[in-house]
Write a structure and sequence with these properties.
The chain is globular, with a radius of gyration of 11 Å. The chain has a single domain (7-61), classed as Winged helix-like DNA-binding domain superfamily/Winged helix DNA-binding domain (Arc Repressor Mutant, subunit A). Helices cover 67% and strands 0% of the residues. It is an all-alpha fold and 66 residues long.
Length: 66
């Protein structure tokens, strides 16, 4: 079973889904690129995936994002 994503992790995932790269996500959320990378790692672990495409697919399947 997957763990819940935090509000910030969902924000990062949605922005990634919209096609933004790490630096753009960081700028938009006023956080460092390292923090974005950490959020992505946490997302991958919680969703039990290995990349952004799989994370978006699984999050949609689980109805975490539209």
């Amino acid at each position: 079973m997957t763990k819940r994503l935090t509000k910030r992790e969902l924000e990062v995932l949605v922005l990634t889904m919209e096609g933004l790269v790490c630096k753009e996500v960081a700028d938009k959320l006023c956080i460092s690129t390292r923090t974005v990378e950490t959020h992505c790692s946490n997302i991958f672990e919680k969703l039990e995936v290995h990349n952004k495409t799989s994370a978006v697919y699984k999050a949609r399947k689980l109805q975490l994002i539209k």
